[in-house]
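call fold(seq) -> tokens
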Amino acid sequence: MLQPLEDGQVTISRAALSVSFPSRFMLAAAMNPCPCGFFGDPTRDCHCSPTLIQRYVSKISGPLLDRIDIHIEVPAVKYKELRSNGDVEPLGAVRERVVKARKIQLERYAREKMVYANSQMPPKMILKHCQISAEGEKMLENAIQRMGLSARAHDRILKVARTIADLDDEADIAPRHLGEAIQYRTLDRTYWA
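ret:
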């Protein structure tokens, strides 16, 4: 699974032959925080020991987790929140922002070979398209040191921050975009930091 996530292709090698197949895909995954599913739940008690929780969470390898751009906790939704209309952005408006961001990315990478979205940027392109301010540099450095993030996580954060800026229709990555991208590394903070 690591090779297709990293390279966008699967290579099958046999004695006399090696064949590569394209395999770009979007991985969406979910997991419970512990075997019983109640770790961190404010309304239910978790009876799992820290050792059991760590063993459970370690079933997903660090290298695999490192290749997932966004991982966040999704808490249980309260009944009142389910029933309220609240201040929710209309789906049509969200779709418009996404379509506009995709158009920005298509234009940005129009001259590039095999790259049409931020998630596909190789390291050299990250340096070119993910410039951040001195304040952003300090924020990212602190996050990497405090959370013990890898070089791969550093690149993923910058790509996600670039996408958030595109969704805001902003040419530059602002510290708030970077801060939001860092917040999307929940499992790095919760389990491996």
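The chain has a mean pLDDT of 89.
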